[in-house]
Amino acid sequence: MKLLFNKALDEHRAYTITILGSKSIGEGSGSWLELLSTELQSVYGKNLVETKTLSYDMTSSQFVNQNMGELLKNPGDLILFEPFTLNDNGEVGTKDGLENIAFVMKGVKSKNPDSTFILQPPHPLYDTIYYPKDVEELKDYSEEHSIPYLDHWTAWPELDDPEMKEFLAPDNSQPSKKGHRVWADFLIDYFIHGE
Question: How far apart are CA 111 and CA 140, in angstroms?
């Protein structure tokens, strides 16, 4: 990432980060998206880093069939991709979901070969059986294909710990304020202090 960031600086333009995923990534004030964007701009400067969010209430199959146009118009330097894993759970087979990731990446690379992808899971859920297996497959896929993977689940309570409920919205559709903070802190640590 630092190489691309420096390239953008050399070209006298902002480094652009596109946050792509399902609605489960959350939105608005207090969301990890907002917290991360604010922190990046305060560290690197508002004119040097731009973030934009593309989030959709659909599965990965629906996204690749209907909604890639906006992403392909201007993918950005870095795509932080939550590949609809929670929405796919029970709707799209794991193998098809992983093929959809490859399809999105290939589409972006054909438009902008310099774009870089980082994969991340959506938020964890309390005491579920199949969803963690899908996330494990996503992690394995990223390792097999040498795609950076941000495993923010390591910062959350254990999946079977009742405390996890405090980190989730009542309907489990996204994190609570507490969950957004944990997710944001993990990403801020990676983007600002990591590498």
Answer: 27
The whole-angstrom separation of Cα 121 and Cα 24 is 10
Global pTM? 0.93
Q: Length of the chain, please? A: 195
- Rg of the chain (C-alpha set): 16
Q: H-helix or E-strand containing 56?
A: strand 49-56
Domains in the chain, number:
1
Q: Which two tokens mark 82? A: 């939550």
Torsion angles phi and psi, residue 53, rounded to 5: -120, 130
Side chain identity at residue 188, one-letter code? I
What CATH number is associated with residue 59? 3.40.50.1110
From first to last of its 195 residues, the chain has per-residue pLDDT tens of 566 677 777 787 888 999 999 998 988 888 999 999 999 988 888 888 899 999 999 999 999 999 899 999 999 999 999 999 999 999 999 999 999 999 999 999 999 999 999 999 999 999 999 999 999 999 999 999 999 999 999 999 999 999 999 999 999 999 999 999 999 999 999 988 775
